[in-house]
Amino acid sequence: MISTAHLDERKETTSPTLVVLTFFYNRAEVALKSVRSVLDALPANSLLIVVDDGSSDNLAASLQELEEDQRLVVKHQQNLGFTASLSKWTSEYIDKLNPTYIAIHGSGDKAHPEKFRKQIEYLENNLRAVAVGTSHRLIAGHSGAVVSSKESKSDRKLDLTKTVPFTHGSVLYRSADFAAVGGYDTFFKYCQDWELYTRLCKRGDLHCLPDVLYDRYVMPDGVSQSTATKWKQLVYRDCAVAAAKDQELYLEKKRQIEELGVEAVAFSPEAVRSYLGAQFTQILLGDFKTALDWTDLLRARIPRLRFSQTVLAGFLRLGRVTRCNLLVSSTYRAYRLMKSQFKRKPAQS
Q1: What share of the chain is helix, strand, coil (3-state, %, to 5)?
Q2: Are 59 and 143 in contact (CB under 8 A)?
Q3: How many other C-beta atoms lie within 10 A of the C-beta of residue 243?
Q4: So what's the pLDDT on residue 109?
């Protein structure tokens, strides 16, 4: 087991520049590559904290060859879940070590070598910024194929009422600002990051670098692969968007979730678009089984989508039967692109 005895010694000598935390529940097969990518990108005087959230596979053994790296600390705990672990360990390490910056790395994801250096450099040169994310690639975990590349056109200030252009694992925070707003809200079982951003932006600016410096892997056991959990995730996303728009609306949505439960909360048009986007992602990944689960769910929960989802279900089943997933995915993507072009208003002369 990796030793953590050097942690207190490191704490006594200096406050680290950066503390990165990553949380694993199993995924031993991708842990070494993911963790090594962070270590390769870490600046001097920094630490990587790996939290093993009660894994039942050989996660600890998979990291054994890195045990001599004094920048790595592995903490083992009984399973708490991502939300509770995230809140617990971010607060604890900010209090313990007082790092200048803090970041969360997604389990199984990959940091590019220049990621942290460029982000720290940006924050040092832009004192109004409290956090900075990066453009990223979305990669199918089972095949390694690049599904999409989400690139920001500039390091623009964000409008959180519309979207977040970066993924959670790409963001670097000023620890002082992160702590000042109270860190992650444990009410949010999903979309903790989005709600956090709404509070952070009251202290300063959030930016996104145009450079692609992070690879997000969509894993078979991830939240986005389950329609049941993804549905809940999108309800919390809707609540986070409300926090960015209007405090009264946000408090009302939060009350509904607390009193009625996630399943009973009404869905906004933005949430419906998110549901369709989640389904579209599964089609691009070639995961027609999950995409079909989405068609069943959307037909049952949103009546106005019954016809279009029934047609889509037939399209997807054809792809599964003929095993032409790639062809069907490409055809559907082209259809969506053409549809979006027709919806655009003609330019004013």
Answers
A1: 50, 20, 30
A2: no
A3: 24
A4: 94
Q: What angle do CA 166, 88, 132 make, to 5 degrees?
A: 20
Distance CA 208, CA 243 (A): 20
N residues, the chain: 349
Q: Pick from 152, 205, 195, 198: which is nearest to 174 by CA?
A: 205
Question: Nearest 5°: phi and psi at 74?
Answer: -115, 125
Q: What would the two tokens of residue 67 be?
A: 């045990």
Q: How far apart are CA 327 and CA 315, in angstroms?
A: 11
User: DSSP letters of 267-323?
Assistant: --HHHHHHHHHHHHHHHHHT-HHHHHHHHHHHHHH-GGGHHHHHHHHHHHHHHHHHT
CB 237 within 8 A of CB 194: yes
CA distance 95 to 332: 49
pLDDT digits (tens, 9 = 90+) for 260-304: 887 777 566 666 776 777 777 777 767 777 778 778 877 877 778
Q: How far apart are CA 72 and CA 36, in angstroms?
A: 10
Angle of the 325-343 helix axis to the 306-322 helix axis, nearest 10? 150
What are the b/e assignments for 133-167, b being 16+ CB within 10 Å? bbbbbbbbbeeeeebeebebeebeebebeeebbbb
User: In the prediction, which pLDDT does 11 show?
Assistant: 42
The residues near 99 (Cβ < 8 Å, ≥ 6 apart) are 15, 16, 17, 18, 19, 46, 47, 93, 175
Q: What is the DSSP string of 27-79?
A: -HHHHHHHHHHHHHHPPSSEEEEEEEES-SSSHHHHTGGGTT-TTEEEEEES-
Under the banding of pLDDT at 50, 70 and 90, the label for residue 325 is low
Tokens of 324: 């032409």
In whole angstroms, how large is the CA radius of gyration of the chain? 21
Dihedral angle, C-alpha 101, 104, 108, 114, nearest 10 °: -30
Phi first, then psi: give them for residue 116, nearest 5 degrees: -70, -35
**Residue 20 to residues 99, 252, 293: CA-CA distances in angstroms?**
10, 34, 35
